[in-house]
Design brief:
The chain is an all-beta fold and 491 residues long. The chain has 1 helix and 46 strands.
Length: 491
């Protein structure tokens, strides 16, 4: 589950901190599809089947750390563990529902579904069941016995689709109050939940709004989602990944370590607002992605980050290259501390095109070692492309990390740079605000003899490493920058 306890929903803080095994192979069995279209109740009986997952342990990894100025201890939005030693590799509990459907199709309108027992969903659809509900009122008050199983398989979710089940919901509401009680959840390949013009509200800890795992799929349109508990990212995937597509609507999280979006799979959003006051607005763990178009993302928690890209070594997500792509819209971190992007123990591929960007701390990107991974090899690697952007803030990496930044198509960067490779096209400009250190510079269109026209030095000194082959075109020379200052080989 997401284990982000200091910064994540899954995660950046979802479950109790626990040691995790690195390099685990996750085998997920079962698929579920849920589609909600207005909840209504019809009483066809159905048996439930538990989801299973097997893991094969690798070498032990360090306990998750947390996002923040000085990295805290925990993962963002991650779900909580079921026992001090960590979560079980196989589901121990069989999900139940006050309404269940495992075969055939059913349709309801204006129905009310409720559940009060632990580990019980109000609506459970699995197998070949397909349910369509309109204008339903769905409520649960029970808590989950295992935050791991709630996050991995959807135990105790208000609306749960498993093992091929499908749910379509139009209008209506889903309200859960127990710990581990996610709003809507799809587990397993071939399983889906589609919800539109509805509201989802989850107030417990480890209680996410819309969630998928094990290859499940969730589609959310014009829906208002709020979560209030700690470690309760609103739009989230967990172990085994999943696909979530969001269109318009509003997403708000207020709990500690509860990002608006937490991805261990593929999450795509078009339009809508995403606000997190206790964590980052978005988190990517492992080789997964978040793709945004014309969306508005805002975070405001001090000592956190706007966007976190990391690998927790928990086994919840494989790979180490997370991709964040945003076109149009706005991305803001209004806290006075914490960068807009933080990349650690991972590679972050960041692409911005026509996005309005705000970093109140003055730091756009920080690539650095943190509390996740093995000391000495847990830095951050950033590949950053800014297309038609107006950016204000610094780029910084430590000695174990790196940034490769490309400014293109009229991009302007105003800030200083610490240890980054910079590429500028003829239409882009860097306004230097403090002495800076480049590892390399590629700027063939801006260099004229010993003058650089598209780097405005403002009296500052910028150094580069003349020993690197990437700087051979600079010839070890010193160059005059527009507006005063110089580019010179480092001593």
């Amino acid at each position: 589950m997401f284990e982000y306890t200091d910064p994540n929903p899954k995660a950046p803080s979802r479950r109790r901190p626990r040691a995790r095994a690195a390099g685990r192979l996750i085998l997920l069995v079962g698929a579920a599809v849920i589609v909600l279209a207005g909840c209504a109740a019809s009483s066809t009986g159905a048996t439930t089947s538990s989801a299973t997952a097997a893991t094969s342990a690798g070498t032990a990894g360090s306990a998750p750390g947390g996002p923040g100025g000085a990295p805290p201890s925990g993962a963002p939005g991650a779900p909580g563990g079921n026992a001090p030693g960590g979560g079980s590799s196989t589901a121990q509990y069989t999900p139940t529902g006050s309404y269940t459907l495992s075969t055939g199709t059913a349709s309801t309108s204006g129905a009310a579904y409720s559940a009060t027992e632990s580990d019980q969903s109000a609506v459970l659809v699995n197998g070949t069941g397909s349910l369509t509900v309109a204008d339903a009122t769905i409520t649960t008050s029970g808590a989950s016995k295992s935050s791991d199983e709630s996050s991995f398989y959807g135990l105790d979710a208000g609306v749960l689709a498993q093992s091929g089940g499908k749910i379509v919901m139009t209008g209506g509401s889903v309200t859960t109050t127990g710990d581990g009680a996610n709003g809507v959840f799809a587990y397993g390949t071939g399983t889906s939940v589609t919800i539109s013009n509805a509201t989802i509200k989850a107030t417990g800890q480890y209680a996410h709004g819309a969630m998928a795992s094990g290859g499940g799929s969730v589609s959310v349109t014009d829906t208002t989602i709020t979560t209030a508990g700690a470690n309760s990212g609103a739009i989230a995937t967990d172990r085994g990944g999943g696909t979530i597509t969001v269109s318009d609507g509003s997403v708000t999280t207020s709990g500690q370590d509860s990002p608006a979006i937490y991805s261990t799979g593929a999450i795509t959003a078009t339009g809508g607002t995403y606000t997190a006051t206790g964590a980052e607005s978005a988190v990517i763990e492992g080789a997964n992605s978040i793709t945004l178009t014309d969306a508005t993302l805002t975070s405001s928690k001090a000592a956190k980050w706007g966007v976190l890209i990391y690998q927790s070594m928990s086994g919840d997500a494989s790979g180490t290259t997370g991709t964040f792509t945003m076109t149009g819209g706005s991305l803001s971190n209004t806290a006075a501390t914490g960068p807009l992007f933080y990349v650690t123990n991972s590679t972050g591929v960041i692409k911005l095109k026509g996005v309005t960007v705000t970093a109140a701390s003055g730091v756009l990107i920080n690539a650095a070692t943190g509390t996740w991974g093995t000391s000495g090899s847990n830095g951050g690697t950033v590949v950053f492309t800014a297309d038609g952007e107006t950016l204000t803030g610094d780029l910084a990496s430590d000695s174990s990390s790196s940034i490769a930044a490309t400014l293109q198509n009229g991009t302007t960067l105003t800030g200083k740079i610490a240890l980054a490779a910079l590429t500028l096209d003829a239409s882009s400009v860097w306004n230097v605000t403090g002495d800076s250190q480049l590892t390399s510079l590629s700027d063939s269109s801006g260099i004229s003899r010993t003058t650089i026209t598209n780097i405005h030095g403002n009296g500052h000194t910028v150094t580069y490493d003349a020993s690197l082959a990437a700087n051979s075109a600079l010839g070890g020379k010193t160059y005059t920058l527009a507006g005063g200052g110089q580019l010179t080989p480092k001593a």
